[in-house]
Amino acid sequence: FAGGYPSNLHDEINNFSIIAGVVARQQQFDIIHAHDWLTYPAGVHAKMVSGKPLCIHVHATDFDRSRGKVNPTVYAMEKNGMDSLRYDNAFFHKGWFEASGENVTDFNSYNGTLNNNRWDNFSPRIALRYNPISAVSVYLSYAQGFRASILDDLCRSGWMWVGPKIANPRLGPEKINNYEIGGKFQLRPNLTLSPAFYYAKGKDFLYYVATGEKLWGKIDTYQRQNISKVELKGLEADLDYIPISGLRININYSYNHTAIKDFDKKPELNGKALTYAPKHQIKGYLLWTGKTIDAMIRGRYKTKQYTTEDNASSIDGFGVWDAQLSKRFFRNRLYVSGEILNIFNNRHMNTKDYRSAGRLANIKLAVNINKD
Q1: Dihedral of alpha carbons 156, 159, 161, 166, sign
Q2: Residue 167 contacts residue 115 (beta carbons within 8 Å)
Q3: Which residue in 156, 336, 367, 371 has the fewest CB atoms around it within 10 Å?
Q4: In 3-state terms, what secondary structure has residue 287?
Q5: Which tens digits make up the pLDDT trace of 304-329?
Q6: Which residue has the higher pLDDT, 56 or 312?
Q7: How do strand 318-329 and strand 294-302 relate by DSSP bridges?
Q8: DSSP string covering 191-253, please?
């Protein structure tokens, strides 16, 4: 990436969107944050790939910045990131897969042309917010989500984060209806509590399922399939406390209950929890912002996660602590930071096959060469 605001800015935005899709396909995460319109296409792409919720950060829209002389390209990006009524139309055609070479002979039997398919859907969102007093804000929301499968699951047989997986060109889209109620309560001038409760019902949920076949006779092979019905419900509570100027303490807790409610192809999975969906998570940080130096300590803990759809195997819960120090010099022209991830070197399992790299140290130097 060129950095800054080059003449080919929109090409850079598109390139970043492509990279975001690649990262979203490979990594495990809970939420997507897009900071202003430059990153909205990347956030939307990551949301389409992963199905995870997208949170956008808005300083101003192009209507505000341009004083009415709106750039239609920028407006389209902002609208796509904020739309409350969305229409999707996905068309998959002329698909073809070929694996050739000695190292991929196990996938040769899946070579050939793939079936064409088309899907479309309207996805509305609506929310109501009420502020009875300045210290209390409550909301109620409903949203329908729609996601057609990614090309990777439709036509590529190979390796994914779950392990070896087989393409499914007949894979249909998923829909989910999400209901949420929550609020923000200013308990004291320096203490805020933000709880939320949600309930979601998924239809034709996209889910990796073991095919029963073994790669090299020992490794389970997976395929993304549509589960008729799934259910998700839970709560999240965020507590933010500023005891003194410059010091912030944040604690977040979430409870998540998932269940397969109806799976015609494998009824024995009905009632089982979804894989890699911890029931409890706790995370938080302590941040000091001072004149001399900024410092942060953050931690997170996840309980047990099932790694197979029959819930026969799981990875243990784990906790990780990180620390970061940073400082700006020369009127903020030089930024220096150092961080240690996984301070106590907890070599926990991220998936059933992949172990955490353990302790990692990073040093960052950034120079601002723009004129004041």
Answers
A1: positive
A2: no
A3: 371
A4: strand
A5: 999 988 999 999 999 999 999 999 88
A6: 312
A7: antiparallel
A8: EEEEEEEEEEEEEEEEEEEEEEEEETTTEEEEEEEEEEEEEEEEEEEEEEE--STTEEEEEEE
